Amino acid sequence: MPVRYKSRARTGGRQQCSSSNSSSSSTTMTTTDMSMGKIIFYEDRNFQGRSYECMSDCADMSSYLSRCHSCRVESGCFMVYDRPNYMGNQYFMRRGEYSDYMNMMGMSGGIRSCRMIPMHRGQFRMRIYERENFGGQMHEMMDDCENIMDRYRMSDCQSSNVMDGHWLMYEQPHYRGRMMYMRPGEYRSFREMGWSGMRFMSMRRITDMC
User: Fold this and answer.
1) Which structural domain range is residue 149 located in?
2) Model confidence over 118-152: pLDDT tens digits?
3) Does residue 160 sit within a domain?
4) pTM surpassing 0.85?
5) Is 110 found in the same domain as 73?
6) Where would a tag sit more exposed on the chain, N or C end, judged by fewer CB atoms within 10 A?
7) Which residues contact 80 (CB under 8 A, 6 or more apart)?
8) Distances (CA, A) of 125 to 44, 68, 160
9) What's the Cα-to-Cα distance from 140 to each of 128, 150, 157, rounded to whole Å?
């Protein structure tokens, strides 16, 4: 959904962002996907220095903070990225305090962009495919899967179609290793998305328990 960003100075050097829907958008937010979330980023560890409060997607945090070493998720769930425009390694953050997230989460670089995950109520449904462009084996999932090899005898997943809900895909079984956030839509080639050489082996729903 297209959004417009606006920011204003707040006491203590904090910046705030909010979003508004474009009147020309053809996409409608349904009651099953509700935008509810707030995250605050801080320049220094232990929530020190200038801060930036965000309640929507942010494609480039460098416009607000020159660096980021800690954050606090006050509500909702977010994906954070170590490159602008939602690129690079992805990390999932739920409600809580991250006083030194680089050390806590094993991140080698700072947060450069973030995406808010809408809270979803309703069924979850995703189809995973063995090959690119929806080729090879296909399996439809409605719940978590800690190992697609054990469940489906499927050694690789290279494309998918997310029909309902929001998901995380992991490169290793049991929800370990690098991850990718999947929202409703078609993903014809993980390789062309910059995930060449990656094999996603487990999938988990993002529930409203964030």
Assistant:
1) 125-205
2) 989 899 999 999 999 999 999 999 999 999 999 99
3) yes
4) no
5) yes
6) N
7) 71, 90, 91, 93, 111, 113, 114
8) 40, 35, 11
9) 6, 15, 12
